Amino acid sequence: MNNHQEKRGRVIEVRKNSFIIDCEEQEISAKLKGSFYEETADKLPVVGDYVSFLYNPMGDSVIQSVSERKSFLQRPDQAKTGVMQYMVANVDYCFIVTSLNEDYSYNRIARYASIALQGGAIPVVILTKCDLCPNVGRYIREVETVSDQIRVHAVSALYSIGLDELEQYFVPGTTIGLMGSSGAGKSTLINAIAGEELMKTGEVRQSDSTGRHTTTHRQLIKLKNGVSVIDTPGMREVGMARTGEGIDHTFADIIELESRCRFSDCKHETEPGCAVKAAIASGALSRERLMLYKSLGVENTNNYAKMKEISKRVKAYQKNKNRLM
After folding, report:
1. Which of 50, 110, 118, 204 is most buried, judged by most C-beta within 10 A?
2. End-of-domain residue from the set 49, 66, 83
């Protein structure tokens, strides 16, 4: 009798070349079938993927295929220039967790939001430790300027402040990805949401308000309310390769202004008829937001299609200019 029947489950943990699959309330260890090693890295299973596998009750099961993804978050691997790190799949909401102390960074939030939007997830910024901040409203308003597609909530897991606002995301079958640097309060937030100690929390150093890394690998946790949470290792620096579409979503207001500039290759510096400069002069757009947009665009060095399009526009403009001279 052949016990190796094909089943479908979800990858809840990845450690090098071994996988843990959740299937029918069981955690099953699995390996990849050989042909996977001929595929590109983005085709390999990540946490959150739904996979078909041959079940082996006596040892490792064998993953046969990966189902189509509805979202796929990725970022550049900082240790390997030009190499992408494939993070998680099938996430509905990306909770960007940032504490309202020295950890807060508008630029980092914008980077995370771009990654979420590029990957097909909805960015939800969770500003933690709001009990320690005397001016929470200012931070909420500032984060809301990142993108019109971003959602913002200020909470204190310690005092259960604002947690009721998050209940709208806890629909059974929903998957939430957690992003944020160490010490931001991701593990504390999960424990508060779950109502039990699911994740180990680390102490926060008083010197710089950062914490020890309490998550060392990505893992999917199923809560009793039917929601799945994928925790990610703390990421302090987030690169921007291949997130051009995410940048466009995050800065849709600037993209729209650029379309109204007199020149298609406008740098928004000294050119006449610049709609972006006019918006800054009127106060409709802050200079800091424009600088962030420019800096993220420069970092997005792998967005070849956009670079070619810009080059084409410049050549067309120069050709037209020479014709008029």
Report:
1. 110
2. 66
